[in-house]
Amino acid sequence: MHIEVDSHTHTIASGHAYSTLAENIQAAAARGIKLLAITDHGPQMPGAPHFWYFMNMRVIPRILHGVGILRGIEANIVNIKGELDIDAAIEEQLDIVLGSLHEPIITPTTKNQHTEAVIQAMASGRIDVFAHGGNPAFPIDVDEVAKTAAHYNVLVEINNSSFTTSRKGSMKNCAALATAVARHNGYLTFGSDAHIAEKVGGFEECIKFIRTVGVEESRVLSQRGATFLDFLKSKNKKTDLSEFATLF
Q: Nearest CA to 5 among 32, 31, 34?
């Protein structure tokens, strides 16, 4: 199983990652990644990039070393209403928006409230991917989240880092979530959540996971760059994605 898209990576701009954009791109090229999403943390995360970091992402070339660069963000879901820590001006500059729950931003409460926050974020139309939903700190109703994701055309991420260095204990929740996504005819994406270049495009644990839980590999939309690009186009982005056509 070869994955052409890494939909979740961080650069040194996130404040707690350790590689530059250039280093991440070189690592992606070496691993055969066709589309690399740069998704540094939203502004409310401690150490996150300044507003102008995201506004200025238009200076990043569309293609470097044979890798298409998706200008993105990992936005924080900040409350039960599903609101994000980014404004419309930033969104208009971006190709992809991940939404996730982080302890420094929103204090874990109850399963019902976590679920409501995620559902409202999806219903807002502002997120393309729900990231690391298996986090045991934020239990959710996986069936409701998966049903909502399918309805609003939101990808559910399987996060490689959740099986290695982050969010210990995610495996069981991820299995339930992935199975629910398949049951509701939704789609998944693999994100390395790399915080260092060595991890960019690394999906060994994700691949092992998907085969173990028995979800059809066709549910993983990030296998093919062209398919992933079609998904982003279906979200009616204001950014011009036409330059990526030369990659596929």
A: 34
Taking the C-alpha atoms of residue 63 and residue 73, their distance in angstroms, rounded to an integer, is 18
Half-sphere exposure of residue 164: CA atoms within 13 angstroms, side-chain side: 16
Q: Is 179 helix (H, G, I), strand (E, B) or coil?
A: helix
**CA atoms of 33 and 194, how far apart (whole Å):** 13
Cβ atoms 156, 178 nearer than 8 A? yes
Confirm whether pTM is higher than 0.85: yes
From residue 196, alpha-carbon distances to 16, 154, 158, 229, 230 in Å are: 10, 26, 18, 25, 28
Architecture of 74-239 per CATH?
Alpha-Beta Barrel (3.20)
Cα–Cα distance for residue pair 127/49, rounded to 1 Å:
19
Task: Please tell me whether residue 155 adopts helix, strand or coil conformation.
Answer: strand
For 160-193, how does the pLDDT look when each residue is reduced to its tens digit (9 = 90+)? 999 998 888 889 999 999 999 999 999 999 999 9
CA distances from 151 to 3, 24, 225, 230 (A): 25, 33, 23, 17
